[in-house]
């Protein structure tokens, strides 16, 4: 009888450990750092003095979804909705429209921080499927206060005023912080 009880207890312990391991595996870790920033884009092709983005190739778009356009940007980032708030960072990089059937852009850029709160860069890249309410791009590295950071940036279109101005909310969650 004692052997049976020992085997049953061992089996129950094994099942409990497996359930705990599966639960731990499915549970997402908490971010070690989180930032919510607003990315302001001034872009209409007619106001060069105020533009923060420029089309550098395929000025004549192909189709209805700007397929083939390549845009370089140097946009202000604020910690609130207001364009005229002091910038906390600059977003510098490029995106390109890469679908003929819907608006979709590939992004590669860095956020450059130089303030009393943060110094350094965050590097981001990924697909911006514009029709989706929320879309994730990867945080693939960083420097300074963000040394070797890894995580996810969730983009949401916060406001859209045609080609003249749009604003994205960037919810940055870092899961590797050093």
Automatic annotation (TrEMBL):
InterPro entries recorded: Allene_oxi_cyc_Dirigent (IPR044859), Dirigent (IPR004265)
Keywords noted in UniProt: Apoplast, Secreted, Signal
GO biological-process terms attached to the record: phenylpropanoid biosynthetic process
Predominant localisation class: secreted
Signal peptide: 1-24
Localization per record: Secreted, Extracellular space, Apoplast
GO CC, any one term: apoplast
UniProt subunit comment: Homodimer.
Similarity section: Belongs to the plant dirigent protein family.
Entry function: Dirigent proteins impart stereoselectivity on the phenoxy radical-coupling reaction, yielding optically active lignans from two molecules of coniferyl alcohol in the biosynthesis of lignans, flavonolignans, and alkaloids and thus plays a central role in plant secondary metabolism.
PANTHER family for this protein: DIRIGENT PROTEIN, DIRIGENT PROTEIN 5
Entry protein name: Dirigent protein
Organism (species): Nelumbo nucifera
